[in-house]
Structures are given as C-alpha cells and as structure tokens.
Amino acid sequence: MKDKTELYLDEIENTISEIPLDIEPRDLYAPVEYSLQVGGKRIRPLMTLLACDMFGGNTDDAIAPAVGLELFHNFTLMHDDIMDAAPMRRGQPTVHARWSTNTAILSGDVLFALAYKYMSKVADEHLHPVLSLFNQTVIEVCEGQQYDMDFETTDSVSSDQYMQMIRLKTAVLPAACLKTGAIIAGASQKEQEYMYQFGENIGLAFQLRDDWLDVFGDESKVGKKSGGDIVANKKTWLYIHALDKADKHQRQQLLDAFMNRIDNEEEKIRLVKGIYDQLEISQLAQDFMQTFYTKAFDFLQKINQPEKQKEKLKRLATDLFNRTW
Amino acid sequence: MKDKTELYLDEIENTISEIPLDIEPRDLYAPVEYSLQVGGKRIRPLMTLLACDMFGGNTDDAIAPAVGLELFHNFTLMHDDIMDAAPMRRGQPTVHARWSTNTAILSGDVLFALAYKYMSKVADEHLHPVLSLFNQTVIEVCEGQQYDMDFETTDSVSSDQYMQMIRLKTAVLPAACLKTGAIIAGASQKEQEYMYQFGENIGLAFQLRDDWLDVFGDESKVGKKSGGDIVANKKTWLYIHALDKADKHQRQQLLDAFMNRIDNEEEKIRLVKGIYDQLEISQLAQDFMQTFYTKAFDFLQKINQPEKQKEKLKRLATDLFNRTW
C-alpha cells in the first residue's frame, strides 16, 4: 500500500497533468508542457501538502496552491537557464536552447501567470495571507538571483553575503511552501512562523549540501560531473571559507584558479579540491550545514502537534539532508 | 482648479513615485525605477479610477490595483522590447539596450511580481474577482504577444486572426482596467461586463488607429517616422485588407515589398502607401475603427448611471480615438 507521501506525490502529478496546456498558441504552451514533463522531484508542493496534513488540514484545499508553487519553481528555472546560458536541465535541453530565448522569456511569463492562477485557488479567508506570502517570496527569489549574478563579477563575497544570497534564492521558497500548507490548515500565526523557519533552515542546509555535493559528492549518484562550480568560478561557501583559512600561498593559488589562470579544467578542479582537502573544508562545511539542520528541527519541535503527525515531514527533511543526489 | 481626471493622474503619479524602489540589489531595481520614470500616459490606471468613480465608488480603494495594472503594462513593455529587439522606447534606450537582456528579464520579472502585489491590495471581498480577472488578462496578453510574433513568420494572416491578436495583445488590458474599477465600486456583474466590453472595443479602435497613424499620421505629431510597420513587414489590418482588395499586379507588388525585395526603405514605404491610396485603405480603416468606437459607446450607454457620471470616461475614450499622437 502506498503511504501518504506517495499518495500526495501522485496527486501532485495528476493535478499538474490536468493543467490545460494542449491549447493554442503552441509556441507559447508547448515549452510550458515540456518543462513540466521533464520532471523534477515535486519536493516543494509535497512540503505544502505535508504541512497542511500535519496541522490536520484538508489537503484537497492545498493542492492548487501546492501546484502553484511548483509552477513558480519551474518558471524560475526557465528564466534562470536563459540568464545562466545553461544548455541542459535534468538531462534534457533547456527551453531557450531547444526553442529560443524569446520563447523561454514569454513561455516563462505565462507559466508565472499560471502559478498565480493556481495560488489564487484558495478559500476567501486564506487568499490574502497566501498571496501576500507568495508575493514576498517571488520578489525575494528575484533578489537572490540578482545577487547570484552580481557575485559572478564581484571580487570578494563575504560569508554573510553568500548566506543571504542562498537564503533568498533557495531557502525562502521551501519556507513559503510549508507556511502555505500551515495557513490553509488554519494553523496559528506562531505555528505558521515556525513552519517558515523550519523550511528556511532546511533550504539553507539543502543549498550548502548542494555546494558540497558538487565537489565531494559521488559523480555516479549526483548525476553530473564533479567540480562544476569550480569550473564556473562560483564563489560558494566552500570557496569563501577556503579563501578565509588559506595561507598566503594557498590564497594565491585559489585566486589564480578562479581568475581562469589555469587552462585545464581537470587540473583546476584537482588543485582547488586539493586546497579544500588541506584546509579540511569538507568537514567544516558538513558541521556548518548540520547547524541549520539542527535549527530546523528545533523549530519543528516547538510546534505543538503529536510526533506522529510530524513524521512524514521529518522524513522528507532527513532525506533531503542525507541525499547523495 | 484641476478637474477629476487631472487629480487622478496626480494621484497615480504620486503612488507610483512612492513605490519603494531605491533599495538593493540596484541592478534589479534601478531598471524598474527607470522604466517607470521614463513615463507613459498612465491611461490604464486612469481608466480604473474613472470607472470606479463612475459607479460612485471610493477611488482610494482602487488606486493600488490601478497602479498594479500600470506596473503590469510596463512589465510587458520591458519583455516585449527584448523580444522585438527594440532599441528605443518613449525616446529613451530600452532596458535591455541600456543594461542587458538578462537585466531586462529579471527586472521585468520583479516588476511583474510588484504588479501582483499592488493588485492584491484590495478589500477581501474583491480579491478573488480582481485577481481572477487579472490572471486571465495576463495570460491573454502573453497569448497575444505570441500570436504577434507568430505572424512575423506566417505567410498569410486573415483579418479575423489579426483582430483576435490585437484583442489579446492590446484590448483586454483596458477592458480589465475598467472592469477592475467597476468591481471595486461594487457594480453589478452585468455592469462590470458592459464596462469590459466598452474597454475592449475602445482598445480595438485604439490599436487600429495606431496602425493607421503609423502610415497616415502626421510625423511631427506622432513623434516617430511614418511607415515603421511597413519597414518591419508588420501584417497590420491595413496590409491584410490591401492584399485582399488588390488586383493581381498590386498584390504582387505588396508581396514583393513585404518579402524585402525592395532595398530602399523610402521607396518601399512610398510604394506600399501608394497602393493603400489606390485601394482607399485609409477610409476603409477609418470606417472600420469607427464601428468599434460606436460599439464601445453602445455598451457605455447600457449602463444605468447619470450621464454626468460618465462624462470623464467618455472624454477619455473620445480623446483616445481622435488622438493624433
């Protein structure tokens, strides 16, 4: 028998597949269909349904905004992929690569509007709080993407600046997903806030783990080549802290590597990873992400609901933290 | 003393100038500030306030969504200018030309989110109808832009297809602006629908006039060189109907011109305009747009409000129809 998590994932997939996208004009809607079919793990809408369920809410009332949050997530990917000039996503060509930049802009826009349409399908009494949270989240995600792009051309990025960037770009969305479920279930303001904090900390741990996996993960499990962030000169937490701990010689080597003074990609990755190893950055990063994971569970702990009710969400959070993909 | 229209325009300008945009990250918000400062006639938000006032509503309740509609309009310009590779807008460089395509994408996205934020600032009882109308409008405007782009590479566009395209791209927005004002004033469903139809017909007449002005307008008043649509091979109403009325020879000349077989721009404009004159397309177009203008006023007529209450809106519609700019 399927457990709740599996049932909810089925429901999310069904609801997404029922969005009427087989309509004209095709050049507008075909890329939207494509981006939703290419998939994704549907973690964000699952969070909304699990949060709603945790507070004893009716998940039928939460499925539309849950899907709205997934549509928004897919919209950000479509536009981010243009800005990052990314050719592939989830093993398939990105929309701008397969069609064109103009298509990815406009199909992204209509996907954004569809996200709002689904977010709006909630009871009258929840519409203002759900939309106000969503509006704020959307704006913050845009700010996060802007900071991420800014950092590409910034010489030095502090650890605080980096954490602020990933908070905006990555962590506020799972936070909003969880809080949306709580709002719809009729949780108190305080409980809603705890859910938000739980989600934000899970999101931060998730992104730090993402950075870590890029360098220290198992290529065969992660599904992409190691060291992509190093090749792209991404100023991740690992890099920022290595630079901070480095002696004069290591520092110069890191700066040289990130200013593209090493032509060979393999050599560049080996050199940077070597310095990370010397400075024990892997352990430092793992300890650091553990603090967010712990903080997240502290917030969940504060919520006065039977432990049994929290089980599925705890499981999801733990899986996200321990993931090797 | 200022009349209501002038007072409302002041209020719109004030509300726009009070949007907090002097914040970080600058590369995200500076282009938004720029696009709002470059101006525009604020016709759409004015429609919302005048419609609200016409039904005896309190325009203080309508100012936020009125501004939301103007923000949305500016968002569409920012993204359309990328897609059309337009270097200038309102006599100033477009955002993508002054900054970059990536900047125009992301600043556009945040402007879109701000539009929703302002649309949401309405009383609980109006939020669902206002948003549902706005969502539908946004989706239709995207569809209209897609059809417009599709037509660039379509050999033959019918008059019906063209009218459907301008309805979506141009006419549903003023219709939504007027209906939003009516909703907030508490007008009946039927009255809301009449306002929508009034706006849609005004929008159609407006766009047809825009096409007409491009060819037959006074350059010094229109503020741009005549014949831009001809140079760009735009399949406007004028072109579609000229093609339809043309004899074999004229038809071949038109087709040749629109397949860029005439190198000299001036010569191309002179030739096409010459055929339009032979076929009396100018008068045909004027008669045709008059039908929408008349239809618009028929809808306004159906609304049971004192004539005095309708005065400002009638004046605005007449000015829009008779405009030489």
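Strands of chain B lie at 88-89, 92-93.
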